[in-house]
Design goal:
The structure holds 2 protein chains of 2 kinds. Chain A is mainly α. Chain A is built from 3 helices and no strands. Chain B is mainly alpha-helical. Chain B has 2 domains: about 80 residues, NADH-ubiquinone/plastoquinone oxidoreductase chain 6, subunit NuoJ (Four Helix Bundle (Hemerythrin (Met), subunit A)); about 40 residues. In chain B, about 75% of the residues lie in helices and about 0% in strands. Classes of the chains: A mainly alpha, B mainly alpha.
């Protein structure tokens, strides 16, 4: 059987790659993709803990299902905002979108 | 090394390699394709974790719905793709440093902590139990309903935001 630590280290690596995408990429859609990657890493963690600590309880799976619902809501609103900003400002470069700064 | 461990390395390498391809891709459309491959690798890991429902949901929700949504958004903002801009901002080295440092700290924490794991097999009716827990008033019935309200609100909000005035 695969040790629990392997899953945790892999999901930590996926989370950090997503974090780098969020912090470094300029395109707002790339940032959203990084957030999706981070949510996936969290889901791997939730399901790994469910499988390796309490497989008879369904709580871990229920949490993973809620992460799915929140991810779908987040991506719908995020992409709508990006499309709306592109329509008004002709850019999706987050360095140019500084209307709410200061 | 057992078959499961070989499969773990296979799907883990797919997910991690595709994720790195995603953050280093020059064009945002290529990044979206890498992202779909990373989601596929994660779906394989869900199969290894004996959560077949989540593997299927990963294929439907992430690779299907979210992938198509993101590709649509890229197409709608494709004026950006023609420009020859640097794809990362000025702080990319700091972001990379921060992500690497976080990875080192997390990996160290994971390895030195003695996890109390069980080797019990997953129950054959785990999907049945999940469904019952989600509609059980003592369990997650209220959060489940709130999640559906959240989804409806988010979709109505998304339509309102992008509607032409």
């Amino acid at each position: 059987m695969v040790p629990l630590q392997w899953y945790l280290v892999l999901s930590a690596a996926l989370f950090c790659v997503g974090l780098y995408a969020v912090l470094a990429r300029r395109n707002a859609i790339s940032i959203l993709m990084g957030i999706e990657l981070m949510l996936n890493a969290v889901n791997i963690n939730l399901l790994a803990f469910w499988r390796y600590t309490q497989p008879e309880a369904a709580v871990g799976q229920a949490f993973a299902a809620f992460v799915y619902a929140v991810a779908a809501a987040e991506v719908a609103v995020g992409l709508a905002l990006i499309v709306s900003i592109y329509r008004n400002r002709e850019t999706v470069d987050v360095d140019e979108i500084n209307l709410l700064k200061w | 090394m057992t078959v499961q461990q070989v499969l773990f390395f296979l799907f883990g390498a797919i997910a991690l390699g595709a994720a790195i391809g995603m953050v280093t891709a020059r064009k945002v459309f290529h990044a979206a394709l890498w992202m779909l491959l990373a989601f596929f690798g994660v779906a394989g890991l869900y199969v290894l974790l004996e959560a077949p429902f989540f593997a299927a949901a990963q294929l439907f929700v992430y690779m299907g719905a979210i992938g198509v949504l993101i590709i649509y958004a890229i197409m709608l903002t494709r004026g950006m793709m023609r420009q020859r801009l640097p794809r990362v901002n000025d702080q990319w080295w700091f972001a990379g440093l921060l992500a690497a440092a976080l990875l080192v700290v997390l990996a160290w924490l994971v390895w030195q902590h003695p996890w109390a794991t069980t080797t019990a097999a997953a129950p054959a009716d785990s999907l049945n139990r999940l469904g019952l827990t989600l509609v059980d008033p003592e369990g997650f019935a209220l959060p489940f309903e709130v999640a559906s309200v959240l989804l409806v609100m988010a979709l109505i909000g998304a339509v309102t935001i992008v509607r032409e005035r």
